[in-house]
């Protein structure tokens, strides 16, 4: 269980990357092109054993806006737009799949949004059929095929058909059950809707359920959030994510509907986080890192214990050795030593596909320095520990010499008890577990000197 030190958390709570990638998306450039992506894909085709695949499909449509949301989404109730989108997705699949030749098995699949269940079951079946024609979809019980669901718009038979389509994991958005909070963020969702969906998923073979919560929302109180947490815990989801609300109204227009005066102040926000940690850990959940908790028998816990946990644009994942292919508008891929992103605007994405081109907008090929730092930051974010000997052996460096500047930046964190320095390890302490992003920033070569909070491109670290 992480140790909560309010004074330390308050002092270190500055904007910073979430490190779902390194380099972060701020370093992506339009100079990265299809030829580079093709070359990186080819490397995975000819390894001694072809690298398996992970697919992420972005479904951007939502029927109504949630004011807190910072995702790339399109508000519409026109079901025909879903049909058109699936047609384009299938064409993108046809364009990209030849880059990944051979029997490269898809072990992980995730549909995110937006609201993936904006698509009808018939459209989801159409999409899954297209994927199965162009990729080798795993049939193993160990596969991880997941979909994000909004309980407010789920037909009665939806859960049963998800299992038949091959899905075995679902992620359900809750945020907060408090009626005052739901009204402030324009997401009215009853606990009955949510728990009925959880029960239906389990009744029809979905082996893992994740619930998403958010702290720091307008009108949120300790009493109300405690009630939400205890309701969620009573359903025993396999995983719980508790995200900090990032109020960035300059970047996300919908957030301008939220009155800043109704947001918890910094002390109240930290108290909400502390409450979530205490309630979940005392109820038997393990703290994975950042904002994720899981039951002890969950795959995430086992992967972390075995050193195989990875962090990417979908959060924490157990599939560390896969190439990630992002499909759909704004989707991000991680193929070999590269990151690439599709066009963010629907029209640009569609236009590229209609002209027979991959909708590649920007990306980055990792330098030798990027690869070293990415490994170090990944170890911190996933294991809470840097294995110095492993880094030196893998990259042929002297750690102390190579990271002299980073170690100097780390000194205040050591003095404050967030990190312990050893001869073979750099380990985050229980007090530092909530501040992983702050520790990781010490090893980031791209960060500018401290930027005023109001102008920072990142969310706060806590």
Keyphrases for this structure?
462 residues; alpha/beta; pyruvate-formate lyase- activating enzyme; Arc Repressor Mutant, subunit A; 2 domains; 20 strands; 20% strand
Structure commentary:
With 462 residues, the protein is an alpha/beta fold. It has two domains: 23-365, Alpha-Beta Horseshoe (pyruvate-formate lyase- activating enzyme), CATH 3.80.30.20; 368-455, Arc Repressor Mutant, subunit A (Orthogonal Bundle), CATH 1.10.10. Helices cover 37% and strands 20% of the residues. It is built from 16 helices and 20 strands. Strands 1, 4, 5, 6, 7, 8, 9, 10, 11 and 14 form a ten-stranded mixed sheet that branches. It has a three-stranded antiparallel sheet with strand order 15-16-17, covered by helices on one side. Strands 18-20-19 form a three-stranded antiparallel sheet. Helix 8 links the parallel strand 8 and strand 9 (239-244). It is globular and about 60 Å long.
Question: What is the fold's blueprint, element by element?
Answer:
Layout: H1 6-12, H2 34-45, E1 53-59, E2 61-62, E3 74-75, H3 79-96, E4 105-113, H4 121-134, E5 136-137, E6 144-149, H5 158-165, E7 169-175, H6 179-185, H7 191-203, E8 208-215, H8 222-234, E9 239-244, H9 266-282, E10 286-289, E11 292-294, H10 299-306, E12 310-312, E13 315-317, E14 323-327, E15 332-334, E16 338-342, H11 346-354, E17 360-365, H12 368-383, E18 385-387, H13 388-395, H14 399-402, H15 404-415, E19 419-421, E20 425-428, H16 436-441
Parallel strand pairs: 1-4, 1-14, 2-3, 4-5, 4-6, 6-7, 7-8, 8-9
Antiparallel strand pairs: 9-11, 10-11, 12-13, 15-16, 16-17, 18-20, 19-20
């Amino acid at each position: 269980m992480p140790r909560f030190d309010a004074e330390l958390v308050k002092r270190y709570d500055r904007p910073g990357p979430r490190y779902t990638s390194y380099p972060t998306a701020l370093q992506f450039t339009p100079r990265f092109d299809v030829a580079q992506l093709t070359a990186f894909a080819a490397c995975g085709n000819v390894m001694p054993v072809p690298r398996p695949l992970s697919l992420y499909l972005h479904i951007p449509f939502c029927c109504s806006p949630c004011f807190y949301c910072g995702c790339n989404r399109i508000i519409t109730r026109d079901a025909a737009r879903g049909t058109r989108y699936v047609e384009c997705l299938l064409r993108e699949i046809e364009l990209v799949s030849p880059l990944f030749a051979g029997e490269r098995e898809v072990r992980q699949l995730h549909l995110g949004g937006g609201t993936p269940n904006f698509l009808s079951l018939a459209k989801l079946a159409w999409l899954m059929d297209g994927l199965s024609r162009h990729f080798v979809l795993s049939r193993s019980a160990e596969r991880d095929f997941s979909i994000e669901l909004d309980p407010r718009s789920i037909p009665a038979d939806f859960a049963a058909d998800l299992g038949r389509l091959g899905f075995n994991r679902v992620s359900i958005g809750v945020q907060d059950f408090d009626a005052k909070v739901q009204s402030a963020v324009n997401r009215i969702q009853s606990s009955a809707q949510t728990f009925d969906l959880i029960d239906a998923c389990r009744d029809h073979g979905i082996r893992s359920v994740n619930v998403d919560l958010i702290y720091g929302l307008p009108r949120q109180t300790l009493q109300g959030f405690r009630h939400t947490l205890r309701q969620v815990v009573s359903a025993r989801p396999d995983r719980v994510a508790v995200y900090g609300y990032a109020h960035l109204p300059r970047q996300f227009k919908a957030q301008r509907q939220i009155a800043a005066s109704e947001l918890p102040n910094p002390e109240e926000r930290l108290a909400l986080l502390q409450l979530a940690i205490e309630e979940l850990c005392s109820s038997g959940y393990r703290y994975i890192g950042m904002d994720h908790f899981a039951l002890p028998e969950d795959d995430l816990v086992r992967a972390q214990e075995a050193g195989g946990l990875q962090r990417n644009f979908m959060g924490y994942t157990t599939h560390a050795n896969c190439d990630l292919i992002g499909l759909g508008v704004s989707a991000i891929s991680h193929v070999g030593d590269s990151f690439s992103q599709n066009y963010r605007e629907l029209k640009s994405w569609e236009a590229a596909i209609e002209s027979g081109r991959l909708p590649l907008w920007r990306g980055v090929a990792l330098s030798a320095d990027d690869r070293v730092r990415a490994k170090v930051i990944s170890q911190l974010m996933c294991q809470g520990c840097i294995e110095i000997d492993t880094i030196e052996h893998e990259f042929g460096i002297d750690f102390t010499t190579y990271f002299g500047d980073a170690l100097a930046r780390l000194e205040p964190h050591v003095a404050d008890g967030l990190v312990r320095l050893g001869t073979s390890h750099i380990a985050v302490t229980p007090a530092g577990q909530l501040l992983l992003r702050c520790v990781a920033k010490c090893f980031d070569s791209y960060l500018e000197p401290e930027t005023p909070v109001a102008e920072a491109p990142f969310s706060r670290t806590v």
